[in-house]
Each structure stands twice: as structure tokens, then as C-alpha cells.
Amino acid sequence: MFSSTNKYIVLSIILILNSCVYFNTFYNAETYFKEGMKTIEESAIEDSEDIPNKAKIQLEKAINKCSIVIEKFPDSKYLDDAYYIIGKSGFYRNEFTRALKSFNTLINDFPESKFIDEAKIWHAYTQFKLGEIDSSKIKLEYLRNKQKESKINKYLIYTALADVSLELDSISKSFDYLDSAVENATEKSMRISAYNKIIKIAQNEKAYDRAIKYLLLLEKQSDSKVVRKNARLKWIEFNKKLRNYDIILQEIDIMLGTAEYEAMYLDLELEKAQILLEKGDLIAGRSVLISFIEKSLDKKDNKYKKTRAKSFFLLGKSSLFDEFDFSSARDYFDKMTEEYNRSENRSEVNKLLDMMDSFNVLKESYRKALKNYSKKAIEPLDEDFDLNFSIMKDTLKDDFQVTDSVLVDPKLVMDVFNPEKIEKSKSTSKSSKDKFISGSPDSLLMLIGEMLVYDFGRMDSAADRYETLISNYPESKFSPRAMYALTFYSEDSLEWKIKFSEKYPNPDFLIKKEIFLDENPFKKERMEVLKLADLNPTIARDSLGSLYKKNNDPDALYLSAYISDYILNDLEHSKLYYKIFVDSFPDNKLHKDAENRFKEIEQSILDTISSIIDSTRIEQIDYNIKIDTIKSNQINSNLITNYMDSINKIKNLEELNLQIDSNYQNIRLLNIPNND
């Protein structure tokens, strides 16, 4: 039997071990929390509003460890610390209900805690995140006016008030509060967080001067090489928007000579060349690209091959748009493909090649039309030609649409997202020399002028075509439009304005222009497709995708995303279509809706993955998991599942289509600038 002394020793050992366990549990929680906060700090100036996935996992681990402390060691002296960490971690993970509950417990059960004042601020801040804006603002204003608040707490109050002001569209107040937050910041991480917020708001508001100022401050404050590099790249991006080319070039030369940026050498060389080209210094810009290509020919790894391919792309683009040299442009584009056939610019190159082909087709068609043109007056065109002509150029985009007559293949691109089939059709189609557009010389001349202006930016060349049209075909219905275009694009624009106002004091076509633009030219086609939605929504969606490809119609693309999202519940297609819409049509009035919905879907997927982690206790997971591998009953029901039945959604489609008014940008003839 144990003696009383031995019992005491054993009991002491047990108590010590138990104490160590609970202390180690809390220590691990605190470590995960600090690591998560550091990850968030190092993600500064990323475009995403969400914290990195790595930080989410670290904070979730901190929450789990704190939960163990609360459950198994209810008398621990670290209990208030545990609630504080759970609340703050939940806040950063956007789990605001969990955060509010923890802050409530901390405030009510631990009134003497060292975290009590800060917890009240976080509580009000969390209420704002949950939509209780007025209540949150009143509490934050009250706390701000308290004299005893520490600088750290004042920093947090001003940060929260900045978010509230931003939500209330008071941008200037938001900036003022963030400036006050910076003044009260006591640590680098606090200043970095405030700088990051200011930069993001300034970027969204296009206040690039302010963003540049705080990017420099951010770079000086941060110890992270990643943050400093990202800050410097953003600094270059914003200065480009302000056309501060000389300042950027000086900075790039400094960066190229700095060891910290050695890994970015290739990107910086390309950036330097692009800025020189944008600046208009074609010789210097092209020289940088050619020199890089020649010096790196012996480098065969993919990194160099990609950069050489990008260099050939930039040289080809410069040849096309700066020199209007189709032959050199094609040579450079071919070299790009030979160098790296999976280049990120391949899709754009294909479009540019198609554009050059289309222009050549127009020129050849014009030559043929001149040969066949008799001296008799030009026959009047039918009513539908006015519309068809204005979008004829866009029907040249795909090879199958350039036919031996003005008729278009009715099948069109049913499989719009089948690049292999498109490539195959291109390789087997006739060369551009065998194709032509049937039309009168004046109509083709007008279309050539439109391409020169809107596709190639060649105002002087376009003006020559317009003058030829007016001189040779004075009775053409396109003559007044050509003259009107000359009031903008000719070197003698003032003289043409006088001539135009004298000859056409009340130009009917300008009035028609305004009426015409109020109607979306592709509405009728979309309405026909939408009739299929209740019978077969999949075909309706895919047909709308084809209309988008055919007409570059943003509304068809948006409706396609809408059907995928709310009727078919197809997350893969919804996410893809919304993303294409957001990237392609930033000025469309539906842009914000599409962007918000895209973010909601992404966030819902992340929340779903987090719930899977919770239910399976998995601590590491591939965040690139395919959407269709997640069971539908695990998807966040508030955001992903149809919150209205499909019948109502189908009925809403026609209403949505009727409300759409895109001011379709490719209606060239009727889209001339207002004569202000």
C-alpha cells in the first residue's frame, strides 16, 4: 500500500500534469491565433475582401483549442482569454453570430476582464457586420467620446466607424476615420491594416494619388517581402493609371538593380517595355523586348519561354496598332505560338488575327464591288439593311460567318465553349482571299472606316475613307454619316462641322440614333430563346451562350448565368458565366449584380468547405475542390439553393430581359460621340 507521502506525491504529479495539459492547450490556441493574425497582416493589399484560406484554418484551430479550455477547464484563469480569441477569430472568419455570442459572454460573465473595454468595441463592430448599422454606430460614437479609452481601443473604434461610413456611402468620412486610426496605432500591424483599408477604398474610388501615398507607407512599415513586393507592383499599377511613366521607369531601373527584386527580373523587364510602348517610345520599348529575346534564347525553361512568348505578343500588338503592319504582326504572333503554344495571350491573338482577316475581307469585297459597280445611281437599301450593316463587322468575327453572300448560317455556334471544334472549323475553312461581303461600294467603305476607327484606332485612315465616300457617292445614305464622323476624326474637323451643319441642319439620322439606342438590337433573338426556358432550360442557357458569342451581347451572357444559377443550380457554369461577364463588361449596369453574385457563390463554397471540415474534423483540405463534388445538401441554403421555385424564376426571365438596356457598344454607325 502507498504511504500517505506517496499518495501526496502521486496526487501532486497528477495535478501538475493536468495543469500542463490545460496550459499547453491554451498556449496552442494563442499560437494559432497569433499565426492567423500574422497571415492576415501579410496578405495586405490583396484584391480579395476575404482573409486567406491559411488564416481561416489557423483561426479555426485557435477556436477549437479555446473551446477545449472552456469545456474541460471551466475554472481556468484563461477563460476570458479563450472567449476573446473565439470572438475575434470568429469575426475575421466572417462567423459573426459565433463572434457576437463570445463577446456577449465575455462582457456579461467577466466584467473585470482586461479585455472588457475592447470586447465592447468588438461587440458593436460585430453588430454592424450583422446588419445592425444604426445600433452599432450609436455605440461606437459613444465609446469614441469616452475619455479613458486607450489608443489601441481608439484605433479599433475609428477602424469600425470607417467601415460604417463606407457602408453609408460617406467616403470622405471613412478616409478621415482611417487617418485617425493611423494616428492611434501603436503597432506596425495596426498601421499596416489601416493602410491596407485606405488603399482598397482609394482603389475602388479611383483616388490613385491617395493610394500611391499609402502604398509607400505600407512598404516602409512591413517586414514582409511579399507585402513590400505587392505594394511596389500596386504602386506601379496606379502610377500607370495616372500616366506617370517617367517616374515608373526610374523606379523599375532601381528595382532591377536590387537583390530583393531579383526573382521578378522577367516581369520587370516586360513591365518596362510595356510602359515605354504606352508612353509612345516605340523604338525603346521594342528594343527592350528584342534585346531580352536575343539574350535569353539559350534559356529553355518554361519561365523564360512564357516571357519570350509575351514579348513576341507585345511586338506583334505594337506592329498592328502602332505601325498598322499586318505582315509583321502575323509573324510575331506566329513566333509567340511557336515559343509557347499555351500562352496566356493566345485567345487575344486569335481575335486579332480574325480582326485582320475581317479587314482584308472587307478590302477585297470593296475592290470587287468597285468592278461591278455601274454608273447608275445607287439603289435604295431595304429597311433591315441599316441594322444589319451596323453590326455586319461583328458577324465577321468567326470564320463560318463570313460567307459568299450576305446570308448567315442559321446554326451558328451551338457549342460556344468548345474550343477544339472552333479550332478545327478554322483549320478547314476557306482562306480569307476566297471570302467576300456582298454590298455596294459606299456601304463597304463606311464599314471599312468604322473598323479603322473602332478596332484599329486609325482616325486619319478612317477620315480618308469617309472623304472618299462623300466625294464619290454624294447621294449615298451613308454620306451624311460619313460627314458627321469627319467632324470628329478629321484634322479639318472644324471645317467639316461647318459643312455638315450647312448641308444637314436637321439630320434625321441623329434623331433615329437616339431612338435606336433605346432598343437593344438583340432583344428579339433573346426573347425567342427564352421561350425554351420552361421546356428545356439547359438548351435555353446554351443558346444564350451562343448568342453572346455571336453578337458579343452582354445581356445574353448575363441571362445565361442567371438560368445556370437560379433555375439549373449549376454552380460551375454560374460561376464561369458571371466571371466572364464581370471581366468583359465593367461598364454594364448589371456589372455590380453579377460581381456580387459571383462573390456570394465563391464565399458560399468556402463556407460549405468549412462546414465539411467541422463535421468531419478534417484539419487540412484542398480548397480547389471541384464544386460538383460537394453534396447539394451541404451547400449554404441561403445563397446557393434556389430560394424561389423554378417556375417563378422562369417567369422572371422575361421581365429581366425586358428591363435590360445595354447600350450595345458594337453598334458602330449609330454610336458616334455626341456633338457637344
User: Alpha-carbon distance between the termini?
Assistant: 106 Å
Order of helices and strands: HHHHHHHHHHHHHHHHHHHHHHHHHHHHHH
Apparent shape: elongated
According to DSSP, the number of beta strands is 0
| Percentage beta strand | under 5%
Output the radius of gyration. 32 Å
Total count of helical runs of at least 4 residues: 30
Query: What composes the largest sheet?
Result: none
* Percentage of residues assigned to helices: 55-70%
Mean pLDDT over the residues: 77
pLDDT < 50 stretches: 9-19, 375-431, 512-518, 615-648, 661-676
What structural category do the secondary elements indicate?
mainly alpha
Describe the structure.
Helix 7 (151-167) runs antiparallel to helix 8 (171-184) and helix 28 (571-584) packs antiparallel against helix 29 (591-616). With 676 residues, the protein is mostly helical. The protein contains 30 helices and no strands. Among the domains are: 352-517, no CATH class; 523-659. The termini are far apart.
Quick take:
This protein has 676 residues and is mainly α. The chain is 68% helix and 0% strand. Among the domains are: 352-517, no CATH class; 523-659.
